[in-house]
TrEMBL record:
Keywords: Cell inner membrane, Cell membrane, Membrane, Transmembrane, Transmembrane helix, Transport. GO terms for molecular function: transmembrane transporter activity. It is found in: Cell inner membrane. One of its GO terms (cellular component) is plasma membrane. Residues 148-397, 407-685 form the TRAP C4-dicarboxylate transport system permease DctM subunit domain. It is a multi-pass membrane protein. The chain crosses the membrane at residues 37-57, 77-95, 107-125, 137-154, 161-178, 208-227, 258-279, 315-332, 338-355, 376-398, 404-429, 455-472, 478-498, 533-558, 570-588, 600-620, 626-648, 682-706, 718-738, 859-876. Part of the tripartite ATP-independent periplasmic (TRAP) transport system. Pfam families: DctM, DUF3394. The lineage of its organism: Bacteria, Pseudomonadati, Pseudomonadota, Alphaproteobacteria, Hyphomicrobiales. This is TRAP transporter permease. It comes from Neoaquamicrobium microcysteis.
């Protein structure tokens, strides 16, 4: 057994519970918590912020407006203005200016800055009508308010998130004003902007600070953060941790496996990596050390699993909600595309932890109840079957009520839900409430799964409501979260009084439980608002970067610059994007990182992918950026989640971060895979196809985990690890090997363009090789291969070409000439931007390529499984020989 000393091998002391809470406060809710009137003001404003967000998310404004005849609804600009005013006011009160600044009181300067910042944010709300009547023509008061507001926003962001995001924003602002300076390279120069124009874009319109990012923070993110905060306050966090240990704690490396499962379940309700690490890690990390994990490895497992909580639907990290606006798809589609990679990533991490435990022969914690293998499998099967039956029964009951009594279905379903809730509380009241065990105690008793489940089944009801409205009713994320939070408020207020009632406690105890329930509700609303301060500041400050891209056109310059650096090689482009995300991630939170990189690089990847003959869905590119953005909390030297884990474990933070990054290699690999194989994102895939993709992708990631760990059934030799990496690639991307054997496309004469297009099946790819003179150098000929996915058949070839390709062409004999695209914002126009359409020779289609008939790519699964079988056979033989040798000795 490992020592229980809270010091690691490095001699670094683990932090106390109080110090850990200070760490979370400093990063998530604000380190300042003054007593007296100032504390009540912070709490009161935070409470008002939560109530305001619930008000604008609910149908109440429309109902009150209809009943009273007054205009009690807010448009998007007004709501964003009030949202940011709350965030800036609380940022100056809750976050001290410097480390040496007082935490038990608020200096007068911070009060003045808070009021000034809130007033500048509310300027949009107060003068919305006047501003809308003078678009782009700001008066002096507008410019003063915008300039002060921008400065105060950047200072609030520095306090809440540190200097990196502020530095990036200031660099972009400097480019706005000094973009025409002679000392800048010619490639990135632009004419520059006046103060009036810059402030109009950044503060007075929806193109900068009050743009899409802050809008998503206002509409979606706040409610989901509030949902997670309140669910944790209700006791769900402890429930998930206990359940994870009850299910997996007895296995080899059980505490680490339980940490992964607990973090995954906590990730269902929390988008904060740091809070996830501290919530689950406080209990899991000491237990991992107890069974043989070093302090750094224990912290790394917690970091790898906690950070992945941001990619786990339905409540993903705040950046995921931005995809709804940036990609232009419903949130349910984001969930659909993100679900499979997230689940596969967690399964692979569980296996990686298992290999780490087996490789080091770690001991197992004693199981609370012993079952034979047959009994255990039977119980697991019954559990899964019961879940499926209950889910099916709930679905058909709700649908049945909606069909049979549509006029009164809402009150019937609400009453049914409350009846189920009361029944579950009665069931939970028969068992004692869960208490968080002391992980440093000499003896650890694992909980029993059935006993844990009965105490917290009612916590699943808000998740059920959230998923139902998101996925079945297809309501907006904001409204879905509102209904889930509404149910949570009922649960928090009533669960303790109802338990007291069912347990037959005295009236005084029942009264105390009722007061405690209302207190929990108030605290949950306050914490939810305080958790949002940093996110709101981040989305607002990142709006400066977005506004700069819009105002200056730097995005187009970035495309040319990245294409120049990569030499047009698409894989190098992806690697550059990943590196940029990781570098920015060293200082920026995930949300800001995603906004910056997606604004600059996502269009570049799509455009240059098109230029390389690849049709890449926009959601795949944004998820690629998002996945590398979440590594912001892992990557040393500024990975906050790694530092939090090291603070819990007492290990070295840099070593913890490096080990966590190694454990997260599967998360690094997945984005590259789904860029080239969008089946992993369930794009255009049915149910049967999804099951098959899940099986093969999971198998591939388990093989990858074995390759990177250097262990499967025995310690791997170097060639065996290389062979397993090759097997992984064959399973995930067999088409890559088939392309080396058979060409994926066959060439057709341009004269047959319309005939070929008309004959191709739906969803097939047609590639056009377009050649023409360079606009800057007419003597140089450019050549691009552009792919196009064809829609349904039914039209003649020419009509289908116009519909699906959208390129203006003209037939002259055997030549197909290309006209300049009318819309410069289309992918085709951006891909052909350097062509001279008015020169001589003309721009023309030189080759038409259609998909070739060839053998299925899955043929390469055969050598993959043969190679895997060879490695497995050799390792099993070595493992058996080692065991026999150990027995003999």
């Amino acid at each position: 057994m490992a020592s229980n000393d809270p010091k690691s091998a490095t001699g670094t002391s683990a932090l106390s519970d109080e110090e850990l809470q200070d760490l979370v406060a400093a990063t998530d809710t604000g380190a300042r918590d003054p007593a007296g009137l100032a504390g009540y003001i912070i709490a009161g404003v935070a409470l008002c912020w939560s109530l305001f967000q619930l008000y604008i998310a609910s149908p109440l404004p429309f109902t009150l407006s209809r009943v009273t005849g007054l205009s009690l609804t807010l448009n998007a600009a007004e709501a964003r203005s009030i949202h940011l005013a709350f965030a800036l006011f609380l940022a100056y009160l809750a976050y001290p200016a410097f480390r040496t600044s007082p935490r038990d009181r608020i200096p007068i300067i911070d009060w003045l800055l808070a009021l000034g910042a809130a007033a500048c944010a509310l300027y949009i709300f107060w003068f919305y009508r006047e501003l809308s009547q003078r678009p782009g023509l700001p008066i002096r008061a507008d410019i003063v308010a915008a300039s002060l507001g921008l400065v105060l926003l950047l200072e609030a962001t520095r306090r809440a998130l540190g200097p990196p995001l502020v530095v990036v924003a200031v660099v972009f602002l400097a480019y706005v004003f000094f973009g025409n300076s002679s000392w800048l390279p010619d490639m990135i120069q632009w004419r520059g902007a006046t103060l009036a124009r810059a402030m109009s874009t950044m503060w007075l319109t929806s193109e900068g600070v009050f743009g899409v990012a802050l809008g998503v923070s206002t509409s979606f993110v706040f409610l989901f953060v509030l949902f997670g905060s309140m669910l944790d306050r209700a006791g769900a966090g402890n429930f998930f941790i206990k359940l994870a240990f009850a299910v997996l704690g007895h296995l080899r490396g059980g505490p680490a496996k339980a940490a992964v499962l607990a973090s995954m379940m906590t990730g269902l309700i929390s988008g904060s990596s740091i809070a996830n690490v501290v919530t689950t890690g406080t209990f899991t990390i000491p237990l991992m050390k107890r069974v043989g994990f070093s302090a750094e490895k224990a912290g790394s497992v917690e970091v790898a699993s906690s950070v992945n909580g941001q990619i786990m639907p339905p409540v993903m990290g705040a950046a995921a909600f931005l995809m709804v606006e940036y990609v232009g798809i419903p949130y349910i589609e984001v969930i659909k595309h993100a679900f499979l990679p997230a689940v596969i990533s967690y399964i692979a991490l569980l296996y990686l932890v298992h290999l780490e435990a087996v490789k080091n022969d770690m001991p197992m914690l004693p199981k609370a109840v012993l079952y034979t293998r047959r009994q255990a499998l039977m119980r697991q099967g019954i559990t899964v079957l019961s879940i499926v039956i209950l889910a099916g029964a709930a679905y058909w009951f709700i649908k049945g009520v909606q069909m049979l009594v549509p006029a009164i279905s809402a009150p019937v379903l609400i009453l049914s839900l409350l009846a189920v809730y009361v029944a579950l509380i009665w069931y939970a009241a028969r068992s004692p409430d869960l208490e968080l065990d002391d992980p440093n105690a000499p003896v650890v008793k694992l909980p029993i799964a059935t006993e844990v489940i009965r105490t917290g089944l009612h916590y699943l009801l808000p998740l059920f409501v959230l998923v139902w409205f998101l996925m079945i009713e297809r309501r907006s994320p904001g409204l879905s979260a509102f209904y889930a939070v509404l149910l949570l408020m009922v649960i928090i207020i009533t669960q303790k009084p109802l338990k007291a009632l069912f347990r037959g406690l005295q009236s005084r105890e029942w009264r105390d439980a009722t007061i405690e329930g209302f207190s929990d509700l108030i605290v949950g609303l306050i914490l939810g608002a305080r958790n949002m301060i940093g996110i709101a500041c981040a989305t607002a400050a990142a709006g400066v970067i977005v506004g700069t891209v819009t105002l200056t056109g730097i995005g187009q310059v970035m495309a040319e610059f990245v294409e120049f650096l990569s030499g047009g090689n698409f894989m190098i482009i992806l690697i550059l994007t990943a590196v940029i995300s990781l570098i920015l991630g060293m200082g920026l939170p995930t949300t800001a990182n995603y906004i910056v990189v997606s604004s600059l690089m996502a269009p570049v990847i799509v455009e240059l992918g098109l230029a390389n003959g690849l049709v890449i869905p926009l959601i795949a590119v944004h998820l690629f950026v998002f996945y590398f953005g979440i590594m912001a909390d892992v990557t040393p030297p500024v990975g906050l989640a790694s530092f939090a884990a090291a603070a819990v474990s007492g290990g070295d933070p840099i070593k913890t971060g490096l080990t966590a990054f190694f454990y997260s290699l599967r998360t690094v690999l997945l984005p590259f895979i789904f860029i080239f194989n969008t089946d992993l994102l369930l794009i255009g895939v049915g149910v049967v196809g999804a099951i098959w993709i899940f099986i093969k992708a999971t198998t591939a990631m388990l093989v990858f985990a074995a390759a990177t760990q250097g262990y499967m059934f025995a310690r791997s030799r170097l060639w065996e690890s290389a062979a397993l990496l090759l097997v992984t690639l064959m399973l995930l991307q067999p088409g890559l090997f088939l392309d080396r054997v058979q060409a994926p496309y066959r060439a057709v004469a341009p004269a047959q363009l319309f005939e070929v297009v008309g004959a191709q099946p739906e969803e097939s790819i047609v590639r056009l090789v377009i050649e023409g003179p360079d606009f800057d150098n007419p003597d140089r000929m450019l050549s691009r291969t552009l792919p196009f996915e064809l829609g349904p058949q039914g039209d003649d070839g020419e009509t289908r070409f116009e519909r699906d390709v959208g390129m203006d062409v003209m037939v002259e004999g055997d030549d197909i000439l290309v006209d300049e695209p009318l819309d410069p914002n289309t992918p085709v126009a951006r891909a052909l931007r350097n062509y001279d359409f008015y020169g001589d020779p003309p721009v023309r289609i030189t080759t038409v390529e259609v998909e070739a008939d060839r053998m299925p790519a899955e043929i390469f699964y055969i050598p993959a499984f043969l190679l895997f079988g060879l490695v497995a056979f050799l390792q099993l033989r070595r493992s058996r020989a080692a065991r026999e040798s150990a027995v003999a000795s």
